[in-house]
Structure formats: structure tokens, C-alpha cells
Design brief:
The structure holds two protein chains of two kinds. Chain A is built from nine helices and two strands. Chain A is mainly α. Chain A has one domain. Chain A has a two-stranded antiparallel ribbon. In chain A, helix 1 runs parallel beside helix 7 and helix 3 runs parallel beside helix 6. By secondary structure, chain B is an all-alpha fold. Chain B has one domain. Chain B has nine helices and no strands. In chain B, helix 3 crosses helix 7, helix 4 packs across helix 5 and helix 8 packs across helix 9. The longest helix of chain B has 30 residues. Classes of the chains: A mainly alpha, B mainly alpha. At the A-B interface, helix 2, helix 4 and helix 9 of A face helix 2, helix 4, helix 7 and helix 9 of B.
């Protein structure tokens, strides 16, 4: 894969691997660990986070010359919190089961460091078009990690994938995988795998 | 009795870091040395307790009477951000040594999801004023406990021969998993 920096396509692609928010930058670990006890929760969480990320990037990028630098963080947080409220109300109204499963982790998107980090590092310095592409890439990268983590934990912990039975009746679920320790173990091994692949590629 | 239960549940049984995954960022970032872990833990406990009081008052005295609970998230995060700023200024005036000991960790607390999580949980569980206060103290104590244990282990890990790909975040996650397993043992209490 050719990787030309600064092209529009690269703004999207970089979020998936090179600058993946979770495995490389270690941002947004709280939701990553907390909601990945099933693939479905991971999907819902990353879509909600992506919605907030993209909307707030556009607004902040449009306002980048208006917001005074001294109060920018407070300004960003208010904009982010507004979109989180919208996402939270929407989920509660149309997908009450998912909203219940995610619980307080939906409002906690406000303090997800991925969102504030991208605003500070990217949207506040670039035009809305690029900001959307960047956010889109970050969202896909986040989605990717959450579904892999959620998938592994769901398959090993309950023998299902997106709620479908796939392991058959002989399989004894590893309860530990859907409990908190399983989250830490799976993410630790995932990060180590990414490091391993990157190291192999660097040696080339 | 009820208050003691809330404290123990928040500090140990449902530890904020190891079973709710709140405050993982500082947990990974600031747990390299025991001394800085203690400072960070104290700063967080301090802010958590004040946050518990202030957000309770805002929610029950302003948001509920005026029926504007929809502004919950926006107002909580603004309160926390300004509170951290105030606490920072206050500590700098009152005690210079404490301010220097806490250093960079104070402003970082704003983005610590454990603080907002605490405010949200105490609304969700309908705690009254005293219960919220105890819940804040307990959660802070639990956060400090987890952070200090982790820092102690990581200091020892410096001497261990960790495979290269696991160094840094990888091994921290595995250790956290073991700690979380140990804390699960308290679940029966």
C-alpha cells in the first residue's frame, strides 16, 4: 500500500493503523475496555463516539478562528458535551436495550481523550473537509479495535458473535473473558501483537 | 452501616479503575513511580470529594427544580473543569509545597473520566447528599489504592526481563488484568 502523507486519502487511512487511537496512541482506553464484553456493544459505542467526533470536528474546525486560544479547551468540551447529549438521547429513544447496556459510558464519551485529542491536534488547525476525513479515519480505527476486542471476548466468554451461537454446545464459556480481567488481558495481547507486526514491518 | 457499605463498595469491591475502567489513562500514564502515584491519588481523591458535593447540589438544587436535566452532562463537565482550576489556584495560595508535589497532575484531572463517572453514578444510583460525599471519598481511596499497587509492581517490573513487544502498555494491561482478578475476590463481601 502506497502511503503518501498529506493526501486526502491518507487523512483517513492513518487512523486505521499508523495512528490508531487505541493501539498506538493509547487514547480512549476506558470505553475500549468497559463496553467490549460483546461485539454489538463495541459497534454501538464506536458509532456513537464517531458521531460525536465527526460533528464536533466540523463545528470546531469552522470556529477555529473565532474561539480564543485561552478558553479553547472549555469551548471544545461544551461543544462535545452537546453532541454527546444528542447521541445519548437518540440511543435512549430508539435503542433502549443498547442504551441500557452501555449505561454511563455513553455520557462518558465527553471525556474520551480521542475526541478532545483530535480537536486539539487536528481540527483546530485544519479546514472542515480535512477534519471530517481525519475524524472518519479515527472512527474506523476505533471501530476496528472495539469490534475485534468485543468479538474475541464475546466468542471466548459466551460462545456467541453478535448474539449468534457459533461455538456449539461442547464449548464451555470462559467467564473471565466477559469480566473486567478479560478486558485487560485481551487488550494487552492485542497491543503486543500490533507492536510485533510493526516491528516485523520496520525490519521489512 | 449503609454508609460504610457504600465506602467499601466504591473503594474495593467495585473499584473504579479495576472494575469500571474509569481513570485508565492516568492509571497507565502516572503509575511508573510510587511517589507520583501517591500524589496523583491524593489529588484525585480531593477533587472527587469536592465534585461529589458540588454536582449533587447542582443536580438536585438547580437542574431538577427547573426541569433541565438534559443539561446534566454539559453542566457537570463545566463544573468539573472550573472546579479543578479553582482547586489549583486555592492550593497554590494555601500550601506551596502541596502545590509543587501535585504539579502537573492537577490540571490533568479534568480529563480523568473517573471524576465525571463519579458524578454520573451518584445521580444514577439516587444517592442523597451524605451518601454522595462518602461515595466520592471511597472512589478516591479505591483509585489511590489501585494506582499505588500498580506503581509498586511496575517499579519491580523495571528489573524484570519483559519480552520486547510487551514492554510498556502491553505488560501494564496484563498486570492490571491480574490485579482486577485479585479484586474480583472481594465480590462476595
Amino acid at each position: 500500500m502506497a502511503r503518501k502523507k498529506n493526501t486526502l486519502a491518507y487523512e483517513v487511512i492513518k487512523g486505521i493503523w499508523d495512528e490508531n487511537p487505541v493501539t498506538i496512541s493509547l487514547l480512549g482506553l476506558c470505553p475500549t475496555l468497559a463496553v467490549t464484553n460483546s461485539a454489538m456493544n463495541g459497534l454501538a459505542m464506536s458509532l456513537a463516539t464517531g458521531f460525536v467526533l465527526i460533528c464536533s470536528s466540523v463545528i470546531i474546525s469552522l470556529l477555529r478562528k473565532v474561539i480564543p486560544p485561552q478558553v479553547r479547551i472549555a469551548g471544545y468540551i461544551v461543544i462535545i458535551a452537546t453532541f454527546v447529549t444528542i447521541a445519548d438521547r437518540y440511543l435512549a429513544a430508539f435503542f433502549p436495550d443498547i442504551s441500557k447496556a452501555l449505561g454511563p459510558y455513553v455520557p462518558l464519551i465527553v471525556v474520551n481523550c480521542i475526541i478532545l485529542g483530535r480537536q486539539e491536534a487536528f481540527s483546530s488547525k485544519n479546514n472542515p473537509g480535512r477534519a471530517v476525513l481525519d475524524s472518519l479515519g479515527m472512527m474506523i480505527g476505533f471501530l476496528f479495535v472495539l469490534i475485534i476486542l468485543g468479538g474475541i471476548r464475546e466468542i471466548l466468554g459466551s460462545g456467541t458473535f453478535f448474539g449468534f451461537e457459533i461455538m456449539g454446545s461442547w464449548f464451555v464459556p470462559w467467564m473471565i473473558m466477559i469480566l473486567p480481567p478479560g478486558a485487560f488481558f485481551t487488550l494487552g495481547i492485542l497491543i503486543a501483537l500490533v507492536n510485533l507486526i510493526n516491528e516485523k514491518r520496520a525490519k521489512g | 452501616m449503609n454508609l460504610i457499605l457504600i465506602f467499601i463498595a466504591a473503594a474495593i469491591v467495585n473499584n473504579f479503575v479495576l472494575s469500571y475502567f474509569l481513570g485508565i489513562c492516568p492509571f497507565v500514564g502516572v503509575s511508573k513511580k510510587v511517589s507520583s502515584a501517591v500524589s496523583m491519588g491524593l489529588a484525585v481523591t480531593f477533587v472527587m470529594t469536592i465534585t461529589a458535593i458540588v454536582t449533587w447540589l447542582i443536580y438536585h438544587q438547580i437542574l431538577v427544580p427547573f426541569k433541565i436535566e438534559i443539561l446534566e452532562y454539559v453542566s457537570f463537565i463545566l463544573v468539573i473543569a472550573s472546579l479543578v482550576q479553582l482547586v489549583e489556584m486555592f492550593i497554590r495560595k494555601i500550601s506551596k509545597p502541596l502545590y509543587e508535589a501535585l504539579g502537573i497532575y492537577l490540571p490533568l484531572i479534568t480529563t480523568n473520566c473517573a471524576i465525571l463517572g463519579l458524578a454520573l453514578f451518584s445521580v444514577l444510583r439516587e444517592y442523597d447528599f451524605i451518601e454522595s460525599l462518602i461515595f466520592g471519598l471511597g472512589a478516591g481511596a479505591g483509585f489511590t489504592l489501585a494506582l499505588v499497587i500498580m506503581a509498586g509492581i511496575r517499579e519491580e517490573l523495571e528489573l524484570a526481563d519483559v519480552p520486547k513487544v510487551f514492554q510498556g502498555a502491553g505488560i501494564t494491561m496484563i498486570v492490571a488484568g491480574c490485579l482486577a482478578m485479585a479484586f474480583m475476590g472481594f465480590a462476595g463481601i
